[in-house]
Amino acid sequence: MSGRMMRASHTLNAGPHAGFEHASASFTAATPPVLEVDPGEPFSLDARSLLTGGLFESTGEYEKLSIPVTGPVLVRGVQPGDVLRVDVHEIRIANRGAMVTLPGRGGFSGGLARRGHIVEIADGEVRFDDGVTIPVRPMIGKIGIAPAGAGPDSSTVGSHGGNMDCKDVTAGAAVILPVQVPGAMLYAGDLHAAQGDGECSLTGVEVEGTVVLSCRVLPAAPLRRPVVLSGGSVITIGDGGDLDEAARNALDDMLELLAADRQWPREKAAMLLSAAADVSVSQLVNARASVKVTLASRYFSTPPFSIDPPTRNA
């Protein structure tokens, strides 16, 4: 590890564990599972970062660096057509993080130069510069399952989840995914100590760490893409070749969920969303953008969307 791990106040007694050696560049069902777990069984995954292996500090060729995911984890008994809920119990991070900018990347006009920046993390803060700190809010940038067919690159977002870069995927949150292959074949990685909506310069505060997760099957739901439960809200994640397409997908998904839950016509559900939901950017710097629509769970009448996810650590 690059640095001592920051431990959560409570450590879940997780069962199976997969380390750095099980890194993958794609969300694929072709790789043999590194773990097999039962529904409800907690397990741990170590996550690599830009600092893993020391190349970040020995080269300025940051384009050659990548952030893989760890997995796959096979969830016993899960089949295509099921709906999988992945609960995030803990995110433990190292005490150093890194960020980069690259020519031709990022959301800014005029472009950015190639630059790397290493930060220390201590006392709940990212020490960005002298006198400038950012509150630590650990999150999972990449989490998803293997799709049917070819496995997409680990930096791709889609119906399988993947590189959503949704800053709401924190400890205590849950990610709900439509299963496409037997066992689901779950991957996770790309931890951030902090990230703003949009991840506008290309990276959050990229950091090594360990996540503790568990999975279970939910009753069937009208689900085409990932849904996140976090902080008392339901969040749909849309992806697209541009932000407009990603926003339409996220809005359509939320509209379908709410209309089915309330048994309302689409027009009535759309009015509620216009008055009460927020549309915002998760990530705009990769090949496919991701947009989220956030609606308080109190507007839903039935589980799993009407209730907050359970929290396993204080």
TrEMBL record:
Annotated InterPro entries: FmdA_AmdA
Highest taxon of source: Bacteria
Protein name, as recorded: Acetamidase/formamidase family protein
Organism encoding this protein: Arthrobacter hankyongi
